[in-house]
Amino acid sequence: MAVDEVEERLDRAFAALGDPVRRALVARLSRGDATVNELAEPFAITKQAVSRHIQVLEAAGLITRSRDAQRRPCHLNAAALEELTSWIDTYRLRVEQRYRRLDKVLETMKEQEQ
Amino acid sequence: MNETTITAQPGTPFIEVVREFEAPRERVFRAWTDPALVPQWLGPRRLTMKLLAYDASPGGSYRYIHSDDRGEYGFRGVFHNVVRDELIIQTFEYDGAPNQVSLETTTFEDLGGGRTRVHGHSVYLSVEHRDAMITSGMEQGLRESMQRLDEVLAR
C-alpha cells in the first residue's frame, strides 16, 4: 500500500478519535459489539448524533457494521486501532516519504550523469 | 523498495534512522549537501520549502523555511563537521522551540554495487524534547484532519 494512503488512513483515524464521544464509543466497543441503540444509551445526546459519530468511525476504518439488517451491530476493528497505538509509525511515514523523494532525486541525478 | 528502520527506545533522547539507497555513495552525499537538490526531498510534501542558506562545510550553516497557508516554519543549524562522502555532523533547531537544539550525525556507508546505507543518529536535549519532535508531525496531521472533518460534517 502506498505511503500516502497509509498516512491518509491514519489521519482519518486520528481525526475520528479527536472527539471525546467517539473515543467513548470506541472504548465501549472494545468490550464487545453493540448496536446503535445500545451505544447511545449512556450518552446525553440523540441517537441521530450517535449515528453520525458511528459513521465517522466507520469511514475512518475503526469500526465495521455487520449486514444484519435488523440490528447492524458495530464491531471494533482492532487492527486499525493497533496501528494508531504505535506513535512512531507517523514519524516513520514522514521519514519514509522524505526518503522516497530522495530515491527519485537520486534517479534523476543518475540520468543526468549518463 | 528499501525499508526505513527507525529506533527510538523509550526513555532515551535518541532517534536512529537507517536507510539504504540504490545509488553510489558520492551521489547520495551530493543529494544531501547540494543546495539545489536538498529542497527536492527534504521536508513535508504538502509544504513549500524555501532554502535561505545551505553551506554544508565545517562551520557552515543552513536555514530553511517551510510554509503553507497557515504560516511559516523556520529551521536552522550549523554544520559542525562535514567529511565528503562519509559524514555530516550538524545541529538542528526549530524556530518554534528556540534553543531546543538537537545534534544529528549522518554517516554514509558504501555497500558496493552502487548501493549506499545512510545511518542517522539524532541526540535531543531530553526524552521530552525527542518525544515532542516525533509527535509534532502527528499533531499537525491531526489538526489538518480535524479541519477536513469539520468541512465534511458541515455539509
Describe the structure.
The complex is a heterodimer of chains A (114) and B (155). In chain A, helix 2 (20-29) crosses helix 4. Chain A has helices at 3-16, 20-29, 36-40, 47-59, 78-85, 88-113, and strands at 63-65, 74-76. Chain A contains 6 helices and 2 strands. The mean pLDDT of chain A is 81. Chain A is mainly alpha-helical. Chain B has one domain (13-127): START domain (Alpha-D-Glucose-1,6-Bisphosphate, Chain A, domain 4, 2-Layer Sandwich). An 8-stranded antiparallel β-sheet of chain B has the order 1-2-8-7-6-5-4-3, covered by helices on one side. The longest helix of chain B has 28 residues, at 127-154. The N and C termini of chain B lie far apart (40 Å). At the A-B interface, helix 1 and helix 6 of A face strand 2, helix 1 and helix 2 of B.
What is the global morphology of chain B? globular
Major sheet of chain B: size, sense and barrel closure?
8 strands, antiparallel
Order of helices and strands of chain A: HHHHEEHH
Low-confidence stretches of chain B: 141-155
Q: What's this entry about, in short?
A:
Chain A has 114 residues and is mostly helical.
Defining traits:
heterodimer, A: 114 residues, mainly alpha, Arc Repressor Mutant, subunit A, two-stranded antiparallel sheet, 6 helices, 5% strand, B: 155 residues, alpha+beta, Alpha-D-Glucose-1,6-Bisphosphate, Chain A, domain 4, 2 helices, globular, disordered C terminus
